[in-house]
Design brief:
Blueprint (H helix, E strand, L loop, with lengths): L1 E4 L2 E4 H4 L3 H4 L7 H17 L16 H6 L15 H10 L3 H15 L7 H11 L4 H6 L4 H11 L3
Antiparallel strand pairs: 1-2
Helix pairs in contact: 3-5, 3-9, 6-7, 6-9
């Protein structure tokens, strides 16, 4: 079967497109998912590895300094102007149930848990499994941006 795509004709059998990927009804736009992927990539790139290899557990204390003061100045949190993590968390939390399920399903497809043809099943399972914060679940994935992009590619969106 041949379909038109931006004035080019594509043979579905040779291009790997299937009927299932063509009939996906998203409640969240592909552009929004791409925005989430960009923000997730920004969050992942802003995480700094401050430990040198082989020294993660090494901590040195100066006994004299500890006895003189009980100040926590050295432990003060650095204020970051990069609010990508907080912003992405809020954007995901603002999604309705259907949009959140679509986002999780796209992530699962990108991760390889489901095939593109099984999108509806992935959405159903995402709704059934939703017990906590969707943002917390998704932001706990170090490769979230890659999964979202791979999911969109698999769905041909």
């Amino acid at each position: 079967m041949t379909i038109a795509n931006d004035e080019k004709w594509i043979d579905k059998e040779t291009s790997g497109l299937s009927e299932a990927t063509m009939d996906i009804d998203l409640t969240i736009s592909a552009d929004t998912v791409r925005l989430f992927a960009q923000k997730a990539r920004a969050v992942a790139s802003s995480i700094q590895d401050t430990f040198e290899d082989g020294h993660e557990g090494d901590v040195e204390f100066d006994a004299d300094t500890l006895e003189e003061s009980h100040s926590h100045d050295g432990l003060a949190e650095e204020e970051s102007e990069d609010l990508s993590d907080e912003e992405l968390r809020e954007l995901i939390e603002d999604l309705n149930v259907d949009e959140a399920a679509n986002l999780v399903a796209i992530t699962w497809i990108g991760r390889g848990d489901f095939e593109a043809e099984d999108f509806d099943q992935a959405v159903t399972e995402a709704k059934e499994r939703a017990v906590g914060s969707t943002a917390k679940y998704l932001l706990g994935m170090p490769l979230l941006a890659d999964y979202l992009e791979a999911g969109l590619d698999a769905l041909d969106l």
